[in-house]
Amino acid sequence: MFNKILVANRGEIAIRVMRAAREAGIKTVAVYSDADRRALFVRYADEAYNIGPGPAPQSYLNMEKILDVALKSGAEAVHPGYGFLAENFHFAELLQKNGIEFIGPPPSAMRLLGSKIDSKKTMKAHGVPVIPGVIDPISDVEKALDIAHEIGYPVMLKKELPGALESIQRLGDKKGHVIHVRERECSVQRRHQKLIEETPSPVMTEELRERMGQAAVTAAKASGYYNAGTVEFMYTGGDFYFLEVNTRLQVEHPITEQITGVDLVQEQFRVAAGEELSYGQEDIVGRGWAIEARINAEDPLNNFNPAPGKIIRYGEPGGPGVRVDSGVYAGFEIPPFYDSMIAKLIVWGETREKAIARMKRALWEYQISGVRTNIPFHEVVMNHPTFVQGNYDTNFIPRYRILDEVVEYVKQKKSAQGGARVAAAMAAVEAVISASQSRKGQ
Prior knowledge:
Layout: E1 4-7, H1 11-23, E2 27-32, H2 40-44, E3 47-50, H3 63-73, E4 77-79, H4 89-97, E5 101-102, H5 107-113, H6 116-125, H7 141-151, E6 164-172, E7 178-190, E8 193-199, H8 206-222, E9 227-236, E10 239-246, H9 253-260, H10 264-272, E11 289-296, E12 298-299, E13 305-306, E14 309-310, E15 313-315, E16 322-326, E17 333-334, E18 341-349, H11 352-365, E19 367-369, H12 375-383, H13 385-389, H14 396-399, H15 402-441
Parallel strand pairs: 1-2, 1-4, 2-3, 4-5
Antiparallel strand pairs: 6-7, 6-9, 7-8, 8-11, 9-10, 11-18, 12-13, 14-17, 15-19, 16-18
Helix pairs in contact: 4-5, 11-12, 12-15
């Protein structure tokens, strides 16, 4: 196992990786931008190095600077987290050329699976179901029209297909062992960004899970893949189709950990160090239900645009079955340069009904002031009958005009809070008057 690793990321995922490393007895090195000099992950690491200005191209996307720190600090491996350089095969190659292990898949698999066309051709050749239609890219309008006339109308773009978006987490080691760690439902999306994920999927059956899981394992072996990764499928009309592979740890990995008991990050360490997986397929058993809500600094009253700023008050929910992966604190200023996510709120319950109830309670407890957040969005969704029934797909938000409901919910909440403040002020005034009259009477 490694003695020291560098975490080439920031925020909550940097802390998540560092926590796993600390439990494994591995020292950690943080790299940070000027904008993150007071960030929690910088304090958490054993060592921390500044790598430049706030904008990501000058810091977190600068491969040479990160390599320089890795060499200078004596880090034996680099964990990229997600985003930034996590799926950049050039970065993985650069590290390997300098004798540093990349805690992720091999560059060859990243290159193959990073191509939408090549990955689909590979999957089709190995029997993994792909969306029926044209695989090769079409850049000529006339050719596209000819194909449309040939296959018939209506013609839909892949991203417009109504259906549930399922993903299968998988793990593989360098010795050829590959397992899947069950599925995640991630259809609640806005602007193609996932906001709520759950596992198991409400539409999943044991027979479907077996077929989809085997397809994910086949996809890994077909591309020479090892370490952690996620295969995404579109599920519609009783069938599923390969979409893409995310060649990294996913944002929503905690819900998989909650129902399986597998620490995915520690398994990543083992695989990168050349060790075998700790689990066989028979060891992966799902228990209960888990839901994750991404808590973002966004303004519900301004088209949910990012709302960076200084956090004045911050209080995380707790209690049974509640986990919060965050990297902020009261007084921390959320920079404008990066993703707007503040934290991930994860809950577990014996059943889906109990998990939803626990999420409602946790959202009610979550206290963040100083910046606007999307907590009202999650509260609206958790109370929406279609979501509660588990009968939703990728068109859930636009079809039910959820964002409009959130705006109305926020306005009503602000109005109620304003009324409560007025009532409290009037009560205070009346108390003062009463006390004054009492003194005069004496």
